[in-house]
Amino acid sequence: MKPSGRRHATAGFSLTEMIITLALVLIMAWMMYGFASGHHQRSQKQLCADNLQKIYLALQVYANDFGGMLPLNTNAQTSEAVLDVLVPKYTADTSIFICPGGRDWQIPAGEPLSKRKISYAYYMGRRLSAAATENPSFALMSDRQVDTEPKRAGECVFSANGSSPGNNHHRFGGNFLFADGSVQNSGPQLTFSLACPPGVVLLNPRP
After folding, report:
1. Over 60: is that where the pLDDT of 3 sits?
2. Is there a cis peptide before residue 88, judged by omega within 30 degrees of 0?
3. Alpha carbon distance 73, 90 (integer Å)
4. Which residues, other chains included, contact 60 with Cβ-Cβ below 8 Å and sequence gap of 6+?
5. Which DSSP letter does residue 92 get?
6. Where are the alpha helices (H) located in 66-184, listed in sequence order?
7. CA angle 71-178-53, nearest 5°?
8. Which has more confidence, 19 or 59?
9. Are 79 and 203 in contact (CB under 8 A)?
């Protein structure tokens, strides 16, 4: 009996199928653990909170030198112009002014902030001693916000779609530093009110 001229198909993946499968696995891994993933940004938020608490220590020392007053510059348009006074006298560690969840460039140690771009918004006009004693929930700083307007609970404070502005943590909210040194996380929609009393101005960093 003559053998058949037909060849039986071999079991297993073809090269094309293997490439497609590998590509899908890589895409899924990026969605779950990549820069814009919730998993990645949750871990980055904790590092961001650590940054804000380190800045708080510098603010405390500054306030001790100025009768409780925090950095103030009435001509400032951005947070860099005000917080510049902290470096290098009150901290030489400029890495703490860059949110690890964002994509802002690192600043060389001891380099002035006024000519650089930082990641954090600043509530200018607070007195640390009075704010901490009378209302420790007064916000001192936060991740970059969508704008500098006062905000009520339920309003959008950080980017809701991952686009600039207010997207330090993509679309997963951000952190607030309060006058008692605590840090609270919020989603894109604010879970508490952030009214600015007279004399207090919110300054975002450079766009």
Report:
1. no
2. yes
3. 17
4. 128, 181
5. -
6. 79-83, 128-134
7. 80
8. 59
9. yes
